[in-house]
User: Fold this.
Amino acid sequence: MSCVSGTSALDGPVDVLVVSEEPGTGLGARVARLTSPDPRDIGEGPPVVKVRIGPGPVSLWAVSTSDADEEFDRFVMVGEAAGRWLWLVLRPASAMLLMRDEWILRDVAGIGAPPVEMSFGGPPPVW
Assistant:
């Protein structure tokens, strides 16, 4: 799981949470505040967006959050990459308009401890 926070001129504070997990784990669903550990009804129709991981694109579909907590303003997308679920949770939901097909994600699992040892600063996200 990784989170990037920043600001946009239209939305103010924006959080982008990325979760990559084995099926059945449920972390992505918990971050998105959904009840089921795995997404339902994805792959139907065209994807909302495609992101690039490594050599190829990964299709992401919108996940309905209508049955979940209505006070938690977010847009949730999920797809499958290398046998794992790839979740993107954007807060607020209007931040989805920032998504483009040129987004490139990198698998940092093989890097090891250096990312953990990086110093981070600034105030914590509002969520």
Remarks:
- The first strand starts at residue 2 and ends at 8.
- The chain has one domain: 2-105.
